[in-house]
Each structure stands twice: as C-alpha cells, then as structure tokens.
Amino acid sequence: MGRPPSDAAASHAAIMDAVYELLKEKPASQLTMEAVAKRAKVGKPTLYKWWPSKAALIMAMFHERLAGNLIVPHTATVEASIRVKALHLIKEFNGLFGKVMADLIAEGQSDPSILRELFENHISMRRVSAIADIEHAKAKGELAPNVDAELLIDAIFGPIYYGLLLRHTPLTEKYGNDLIDQVFQGVRSQRP
C-alpha cells in the first residue's frame, strides 16, 4: 500500500525543493540521491520509485521549477518575437536556469539520454514554435523566401548556448540585441 495522495504530494514537493536548493549550492555532477533524500527527509527508495536515476530527478525538477518560466508572449513581427525569446533566454541563462542547463549539457556528454531528454522535452518544442513563426513570416513576405528556418534558429540561439557553456562573453541584453540585429539584417525581405 502506497502513501496517501497528500503525503505523496508533500514528499514530491519536498524532493523538488531539495533538488532545487542543492543545485544552487553545487553542480549536478556533485548532487547525490543520498543528499536529496536527506534534505527532503525521505528514504532513497522513495526517490528511486519515482525517478530511475539522478539525471531523471534533475530533469524533473528542471521541467517543473525552471523550464516553465520560458514561455514568452507572441509579438507583431517575427523579429520582435525572436528578440523577446532570445532576450528572455539570456536573462534566464544568467540565473539558476543557466547553471542547471549548463550542468545538464555537461552531464549529457557522458550520458546521451540526458541530452536526448533535454532536447525532446525542452528545446524541441521551443524550436518548433520558433520555426513555425519564421515560416509564417516568410509566407507574409516579412523574411526572404529562401531563408532556412532551422539554420536561422541555430544562428540566433547557437551563440547564446555557446556563451553559456564557454563563458567567453557576458550574456547581456546588449549582446542579445546586437546578435538579433546582425542575424536579421541578412534575412529580412528586400521588398520595396
């Protein structure tokens, strides 16, 4: 017989809180199931009943507590829409979301299932939405008809992820605006 639903919900919340707080203190590579269980005041079997691995637990917290914050409003033009998304991502990358994202990408180098889950359950849906916006803008004549939507997304968001991982330049609002201006300069429709 399992825990009553209210106990299970309380345990789940305590576990998510524990993972969130521990990741503020240390990188994902140093997080242990033992530390999470101790902080959440639950047994390790409870963790493994709900999440088969540390990576699955971190991904659950990531989606529940951090990734939901990245939903941004639609704007009048594709350039404005992409700008809002890029600037929002830059802002998030400067906080715990960015730390956890970088940790997950690093952990994914030795565990491809992490990268697969990160892409399928987080990056892919945002990418599909941005690609649809670009295709719609091409149909309206806002962008040149020969623009490759997937390459455009990579040209915009690739440097932001590169900056997160290599920290070669500060991810600032100015950087984001300059990046968007530069990329869109080459893809705007040249209609008179």
TrEMBL record:
GO MF, one annotated term: transcription cis-regulatory region binding
Keyword Transferase included in the entry's annotation: no
Residue ranges flagged as DNA-binding region: 32-51
Family matches, as Gene3D superfamilies: Homeodomain-like (1.10.10.60), Tetracycline Repressor, domain 2 (1.10.357.10)
Keywords: DNA-binding, Transcription, Transcription regulation
Residues covered by the HTH tetR-type domain: 9-69
InterPro entries according to UniProt: Homeodomain-like_sf, HTH-type_TetR-like_transc_reg, HTH_TetR, Tet_transcr_reg_TetR-rel_C_sf, TetR_C
Keyword DNA-binding tagged: yes
Cited PANTHER family: HTH-TYPE TRANSCRIPTIONAL REGULATOR RUTR (PTHR30055), TETR-FAMILY TRANSCRIPTIONAL REGULATOR (PTHR30055:SF148)
Protein name as catalogued: TetR/AcrR family transcriptional regulator
The species this protein was found in: Dyella dinghuensis
